[in-house]
């Protein structure tokens, strides 16, 4: 399952708290490879920046991929809320709803779900 990234760039603006990304920090917590909200090293980005790779490397044995994607999507929304970026919040929700429609036409709403 591909992660439906909204390409808001907000997660790349708070890497100071991620030890694995220390060498990518341009000094103010923003990734040095973020250019116009796009990762300029996307194809060779660190594993921690790749939801699918992180799932396979660390979480596949403990949760379903769909659940892992949902957890990450909720984190995206929480980051946008933290930044107070209403445009990003709406864009994340729109992107998720387009890419991640669940059964019976229910859509992701940003709330925790107990779906199968």
Descriptive notes:
By secondary structure, the protein is mainly alpha-helical. The protein has one domain (11-105). The chain contains three helices and two strands. It has helices spanning 51-59, 65-83, 86-99, and strands at residues 34-35, 38-39. It has a two-stranded antiparallel sheet. Strand 1 (34-35) and strand 2 form a beta hairpin. Helix 1 (51-59) packs across helix 2 (65-83) and helix 2 (65-83) packs antiparallel against helix 3 (86-99). The protein is globular, with a radius of gyration of 15 Å. Residues 102-108 and 111-116 have low confidence and may be disordered.
Helix/strand-derived category reads mainly alpha
Q: Could you give the distance between the termini?
A: 16 Å
What low-confidence regions span 5 or more consecutive residues with pLDDT below 50? 102-108, 111-116
Q: Give the biggest sheet.
A: 2 strands, antiparallel
Overall mean pLDDT: 84
Query: How many helix segments?
Result: 3
Strands, total number = 2
Strand order of the largest sheet: 1-2
Strand content: under 5%
Count of domain modules = 1
Shape summary: globular
Based on CA atoms alone, the radius of gyration comes out at 15 Å
Task: Please trace the helix and strand order, writing H or E for each element.
Answer: EEHHH
Task: State the helical fraction.
Answer: 25-40%
């Amino acid at each position: 399952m591909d992660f439906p990234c909204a390409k808001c760039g907000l997660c790349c603006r708070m890497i100071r708290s991620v030890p694995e990304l220390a060498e990518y920090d341009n000094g103010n917590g923003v990734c040095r490879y973020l250019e116009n909200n796009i990762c300029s090293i996307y194809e060779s980005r660190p594993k921690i920046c790749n939801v699918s790779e992180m799932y396979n490397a660390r979480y596949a044995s403990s949760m379903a991929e769909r659940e892992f994607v949902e957890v990450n999507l909720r984190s995206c929304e929480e980051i946008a809320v933290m930044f107070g970026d209403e445009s990003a919040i709406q864009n994340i929700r729109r992107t998720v709803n387009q890419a991640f429609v669940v059964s019976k036409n229910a859509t992701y709403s940003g709330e925790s779900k107990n779906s199968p």
